[in-house]
Automatic annotation (TrEMBL):
Job of this protein: Catalyzes the hydrolysis of 10-formyltetrahydrofolate (formyl-FH4) to formate and tetrahydrofolate (FH4).
PANTHER family, alphabetized: FORMYLTETRAHYDROFOLATE DEFORMYLASE, FORMYLTETRAHYDROFOLATE DEFORMYLASE 2, MITOCHONDRIAL
Protein name: Formyltetrahydrofolate deformylase
Pfam family, one: ACT
Originating species: Pedobacter alluvionis
Keyword Iron belongs to the record: no
GO molecular function, one term: formyltetrahydrofolate deformylase activity
Catalytic activity: (6R)-10-formyltetrahydrofolate + H2O = (6S)-5,6,7,8-tetrahydrofolate + formate + H(+)
Classification lineage: Bacteria, Pseudomonadati, Bacteroidota, Sphingobacteriia, Sphingobacteriales
């Protein structure tokens, strides 16, 4: 018995679940778990179905499903396989370290094919864990030249997702378009929000009581792409800048790894500038 994950998004209408399950049964697929959600405001239907069975012809199943779904339906059939990722970094190690340690012990749910950095700072750590590290200097280059070098490296591998593990460079519209829906970012998210350098010092000076982090897909609008997951921690007057930074890094790691787990397990649908996440 082989595992199969079926992802469907389409306009909502009566009888969708019946039509879908009938098609799966006709191909001798046993449903292990099924989650569905209807976005009533946009009249959109989403479902994630975990199946088991001996599927002989995936294309025929896909055609059968599409025949019984509304126009503009999207169907994705996924056999169990690990995603392939590239990680982009600058100098901060905490998110990269979490990813590479889980990769080392085969608990990431993906394979890290390479790490690309615009500083040499994280080369030794990366290579000690057997992962290729590529340095791309951003100094004395325009953005298009820098990004062209990064793309050349990425294109050496068959990459499913790019993970920005505290990669402190703003990507161009063209770069984001080339990897649309495939770039995941992590950033601090304070209430109130602080932009620019030293956000944790700004938070300390403002006396915030909550710090947080957000993992999201990257779009043309800086830090405004579809949100995958968020968390917050309470802080108080006992937190100095160092304690604030330490707490912030811990929550950034937690949020990024949670988002990656959801994505690697095919639990995230993008709908406009929002996500539907089946946990």
């Amino acid at each position: 018995m082989n595992a199969l994950t079926v992802l469907i998004s389409c306009p909502d209408q009566v009888g969708l679940v019946t039509n879908i399950t009938r098609a799966l049964a006709a191909h001798q697929l046993n449903i292990i778990a099924m989650r569905e959600f209807v976005d009533e405001a946009n009249k959109a239907f989403f479902t994630r179905i975990a199946c088991k069975g001996n599927l002989e012809d995936a294309e025929k199943l896909k055609e059968k499903l599409l025949e019984n779904l509304p126009n503009a339906a999207e169907v994705n059939l996924i056999t169990k396989q690990e995603k392939q990722i590239a990680v982009l970094v600058t100098k901060e190690y905490h998110c990269l370290a979490e990813i590479l340690i889980k990769n080392q012990f085969k608990t990431l749910g993906a394979n890290v094919k390479c790490v690309i950095g615009n500083y040499e700072s994280l080369r030794d750590f990366t290579e000690k864990l057997g992962i290729p590290y590529f340095f791309v200097d951003h100094n004395n280059k325009d953005k298009s030249e820098f990004e062209a070098e990064v793309k050349t490296i990425i294109n050496r591998f068959e990459i499913d997702y790019l993970v920005l593990a505290k990669f402190m460079r703003i990507l161009s519209t063209d770069f984001v378009k080339d990897f649309a829906g495939k770039i995941i970012n992590i950033h601090h998210s304070f209430l109130p929000a602080f932009i620019g350098a030293n956000p944790y010092r700004q938070a300390f000076e403002r006396g915030v009581k909550i710090i947080g982090a957000t993992a999201h897909f990257v779009t043309d609008n800086l830090d405004e792409g579809p949100i995958i997951t968020q968390h917050t921690n309470h802080v108080d007057h006992n937190f100095g800048v160092k304690e604030m930074v330490r707490a912030g890094k811990e929550i950034e790691k937690k949020v990024l790894l949670e988002a990656l787990e959801l994505i690697f397990e095919d639990r995230v649908f993008v709908s406009g500038n929002k996500t539907v996440v089946f946990k």
